[in-house]
């Protein structure tokens, strides 16, 4: 059965007019864009969304980057949506990403890596889940 997942097109991509190119790669990978919204995240939203990384050395730079320009938050639907999204996205560091993935083809650096996708399928397999976990609440709020 089709499931849904949540994805973000990051500021490095919107800045370079790559929203369409990224979306095309997602669609070609069998994902349907069922919701899409271009927003400029607040610092509070970015910190909340990436709270899982708050002890990491790159946290502050990550938050600054994510609020440096608009992002496009999307809900994607398809068979095995989260894994499909991760596969077409590629490794975090574009230098390690496989050819044909979004990050290999389009990303600038490990920070400016063009897209975000969920990594835990227990979270927000369906973004409409009423009992969203703490980690899911910021994501659900972004696209609402
Ligand atoms: P993302 O999948 O959105 O999850 C966390 C983000 O932190 C990651 O993509 C990168 O954009 C950013 N980041 C910056 N430096 C690192 C790093 N050294 N390791 C992992 N993620 C990093």
Report on the architecture of this protein.
There is one protein chain. By secondary structure, the protein is an alpha+beta fold. Helices cover 36% and strands 19% of the residues. The protein contains 7 helices and 4 strands; from the N terminus they run βααβααβααβα. It has helices at 11-15, 19-28, 43-49, 59-66, 81-89, 102-106, 136-143; strands at 2-9, 32-39, 71-79, 115-117. A 4-stranded antiparallel beta sheet has the order 2-3-1-4, with helices on both faces. The structure holds adenosine-3',5'-cyclic-monophosphate (CMP). Adenosine-3',5'-cyclic-monophosphate is lined by residues 53, 58, 62, 92, 110-111, 113, 116.
Distance between the termini: 24 Å
From the alpha carbons, calculate the radius of gyration and give it in angstroms: 14 Å
Helix fraction bin:
25-40%
Beta-strand fraction estimate: 15-25%
Instruction: Give the cofactors and ligands.
Output: adenosine-3',5'-cyclic-monophosphate
Instruction: Categorize the overall geometry.
Output: globular
- Low-confidence segments, given as residue ranges, are 123-135
Structural class, from helix and strand content? alpha+beta
What's the total count of β strands? 4
Number of helices: 7
- List the strand order in the largest sheet: 2-3-1-4
Features:
alpha+beta, 144 residues, 7 helices, 4 strands, single chain, globular
Secondary-structure topology with pairs:
Layout lengths: L1 E8 L1 H5 L3 H10 L3 E8 L3 H7 L9 H8 L4 E9 L1 H9 L12 H5 L8 E3 L18 H8 L1
Antiparallel strand pairs: 1-3, 1-4, 2-3
Bound molecules: adenosine-3',5'-cyclic-monophosphate.
The site of adenosine-3',5'-cyclic-monophosphate has 8 residues, from loops.
């Amino acid at each position: 059965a089709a499931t849904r997942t949540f994805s973000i097109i990051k500021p490095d991509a919107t800045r370079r007019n790559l929203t369409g190119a990224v979306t095309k790669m997602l669609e070609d990978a069998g994902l349907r864009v069922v919701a899409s919204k271009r927003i400029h995240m607040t610092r509070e939203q970015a910190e909340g969304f990436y709270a899982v990384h708050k002890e990491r050395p790159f946290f502050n730079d990550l938050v600054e980057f994510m609020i440096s320009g608009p992002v496009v938050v999307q809900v994607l639907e398809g068979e095995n949506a989260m894994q499909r999204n991760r596969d077409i996205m590629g490794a975090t560091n574009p230098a390690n990403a496989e050819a044909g993935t979004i990050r290999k083809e389009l990303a600038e650096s490990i920070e400016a890596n063009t897209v975000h996708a969920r990594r835990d399928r227990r979270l927000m397999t369906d973004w409409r889940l009423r009992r969203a976990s703490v980690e899911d609440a910021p994501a659900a709020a972004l696209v609402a």
